[in-house]
Amino acid sequence: MYLTWLDSNSWLIELAGKRILLDPWLVGNLTFGNLTWLFKGYRHQERAFPESLDLILLSQGLEDHAHPETLKRLGKAIPIVGSPSAAKVAQQLGFSQVTALKHGETFTLDHLTIQATPGSPLGPMVQENGYLLKDLASGVKLYYEPHGFHASTLKENAPIEVVITPLIDLALPLVGSIIKGTESALELAKDVQPQVMLPTAAGGDIMFEGLLLSVLKAIGSPDEFRAKLAENNLDTKVLEPRPGDRVEISLRPAAIVP
Q1: For the chain, is the Cβ count within 10 Å smaller at the N or the C terminus?
Q2: What is the pTM of this model?
Q3: Is 13 exposed, middle or buried (CB count within 10 Å of its CB: 0-12, 13-18, 19+)?
């Protein structure tokens, strides 16, 4: 397995012989509803688009996961799998092969399965997706959820060798944590016993500005999370790849049960 972090929530996953582009924001600015005064993310240099993609995977329909400007520049024949809201965005942008996955549903691509899990709630009526990917040949699993909202049923799939999720909290006054990492990720580690965890939703080479930044509060750090793992006798390794670096994920062989 190889993972390449492309800033923010954007990843290139190489698993089961497939190249999957996850939640891509590679070019242009990031805003929500064009409210640049409230929040704006930008980069000084566009990130190169990965080649030879087998699939685009979208966890949410919001701009930081289904970034319209980035999606417009990707080939419309590339298959897309996404939450129902993300699938709607992809269809509106002209993609020809779009699959909407509801919670519990599975998409199969040769020797790779992708199961949608309950993810981040966006209001009372919408709950977006996390994803559990499995290489059917090796049995290796990878789980991704970008806001730290994890289904309790994930423990039924333990062990999950690789987890990509926030390891810190981002909180708003009166609202609380909009990204949950400190305790949520620790409980997840206890439940699914990952060998490797990687933080997502961090800035990387991206700059942010706007009124929202003045009230957002970051709580925790990857080093503090490592300390919590050690306190709980968990040998999970935390990796922090640099943006653009292709990292090989080395895993221990699965334990043989007599």
Answers
A1: C
A2: 0.94
A3: buried
80-82 β-sheet, strand order: 98-100, 80-82, 55-58, 18-22, 11-15, 2-5, 246-248
Q: What domains does the chain contain, in order, with CATH numbers? A: 2-243 (3.60.15.10)
Q: Which two tokens stand for residue 89?
A: 């965005």
pLDDT of residue 254: 63
CA 81 from chain center: how many Å? 14
The answer to whether 207 and 42 have CB atoms below 8 angstroms apart is yes
Which position has the token pair 């300390």? 227
Measure the CA–CA gap between 160 and 9, rounded to whole angstroms.
Answer: 20
| Rounded CA separation 197/238 (Å) | 5
Handedness of CA 255, 239, 221, 218 (dihedral sign): negative
Please tell me the distance from the alpha carbon of residue 240 to that of residue 243, in angstroms, as a whole number: 9
Judged by phi (left if over 0) then psi (alpha if -120 to 50, else beta), residue 59 lies in alpha
Average pLDDT over residues 161-185: 86
**Contact in structure between 118 and 85 (CB atoms under 8 Å):** no
| Rounded distance between C-alpha atoms, residue 205 and residue 124, angstroms | 34
**Stretch 110-126: mean pLDDT:** 92
Which candidate, 200, 184, 244, places its Cα nearest to that of 9?
200
For every residue of 217-255, DSSP letters joined together read EEE--HHHHHHHHHHTT--PEE--PPTT-EEE---PPPP
Say how many residues make up the chain: 258
On the question of a cis peptide bond just before residue 24, with omega within 30 degrees of 0, the verdict is no
